[in-house]
Design brief:
about 375 residues; 5 helices; globular
Length: about 375
């Protein structure tokens, strides 16, 4: 009997040592992964790390972060931000403190991992008067981030569902936002990323106009320092109607996809495709319908190193009133384009301010 007790005590001690060792090991791995991300952010040249400190604790810790987006001059991100309308409030800096739970078991959809971080973002107080039926104490959205054993990071976003009135400047409209979800994945070196956003339904109506968007999906992946980009955007349905006079526009099943690689700032080579199942328009004595529109574009360099692009489109049927056109096809192409000059032109076109740009600057 004494031998059995001694064996059990030894097992308990060994398990305690193993548990304490695993806690220390996982904590150190979490710290190493955060340090790797800090190095990758700095190396990217477009994310300034003012602070990224991890304070380990018992079975968890706290991450203090202060990060700022600083796009390089001429980069696609810089061009995108500069193209936003004047006065757009884009916050390029994020700060805060996040509680982190250590693995190996963290629960949720990815139960085994180094660590997990749960963050809830509340509805801004300035919005509360505009959403009188907002669920009490419900976060605007939740983000769950999981740090994998390989250093990869996976984040999942879930937004609140809202079905009720929206008040904007003394105007009240009925609105519905259902099924907002998103995700983001990145490896430890920021070499491969993937993000997607899905929305089941967004609708609103005011002053006799009803607008509805259904099954919105957006998925994007990037690889490499000069990124290859795979992107797909889709809308299941989009409707605008004024029931009092019978006017309506309906669109069904729009899909746009890209498989492209960045050659120069604002210059991408590769393929793009588009498909549109159906568009219907009706009102004021007019009725029309377009069905099955398929399109594609291929941009590449020719033997001389100049850019060329070819586009093709096919429409199965266009109907206006009692008249129809079947199997309409058309194509277009551009060739012998100087890549460097085109890059400079596109950068100028996306960053210029029409209100202050003169004709001499354009020429």
């Amino acid at each position: 009997m004494d031998s059995i007790v001694r064996v059990l005590l030894v097992l308990v001690v060994l398990l305690g040592i193993a548990w304490a060792g695993s806690v220390f090991y996982i904590g150190s791995q979490v710290q190493d992964s955060i340090s790797n991300y800090e190095t990758a952010f700095t190396r990217s040249g477009e994310i300034a790390v003012h602070r990224l400190d991890y304070e380990p604790g018992f079975l968890g810790g706290q991450l203090h972060y202060d990060l700022e987006c600083r796009p390089q001059p001429g980069s696609d991100l810089a061009i995108l931000l500069s193209a936003l309308p004047a006065g757009s409030d884009v916050n390029r800096r994020t700060t805060g403190i996040a509680d982190i739970r250590h693995g190996p078991y963290v629960g949720g959809a990815e139960p085994f991992a180094l660590a997990r971080m749960d963050m809830a973002f509340d509805l801004p107080q300035t919005w509360q008067s505009s959403l009188p039926d907002y669920p009490q104490n419900a976060p605007l959205f939740d983000i769950v981030s999981v740090l994998g054993f390989d250093g990869s990071l996976q984040s999942r976003l879930t937004g609140v569902d809202y079905d009720g009135p929206v008040v904007v400047e003394n105007t009240t409209m009925d609105a519905q936002l259902i099924g907002l979800q998103g995700s983001f994945e990145v490896d430890s070196q920021l070499g491969q990323t993937r993000g997607n956003l899905d929305l089941e339904r967004l609708s609103f109506g005011a002053d006799g106009v009803e607008v509805a968007l259904e099954n919105l999906g957006f998925d994007v992946r990037t690889t490499g320092p000069e990124p290859n980009l795979l992107m797909e955007f889709g809308i299941g349905g989009f409707n605008v109607a004024t029931p009092q006079d019978g006017t309506r526009v309906e669109m069904e099943q729009l899909v746009i996809n890209y498989d492209i690689a960045r050659l120069r700032p604002s210059v991408w080579l590769g393929t793009a495709g588009m498909s549109l199942e159906r568009v219907v328009a009706q009102g004021n004595g007019f009725s029309g319908e377009l069905t099955d529109w398929q399109g594609s574009t291929n941009a590449q360099l020719d033997a001389a190193g100049r850019m060329e692009a070819v586009s093709e489109s096919n429409i199965a049927r266009i109907t206006v009133g009692n008249n129809s056109i079947n199997n309409l096809a058309f194509d277009a192409s551009v060739r012998n384009i100087n890549v460097e000059a085109y890059s400079q032109l596109m950068q100028f076109a996306t960053t210029m301010d029409p209100a202050t740009t003169s004709a001499d600057q354009i020429i």
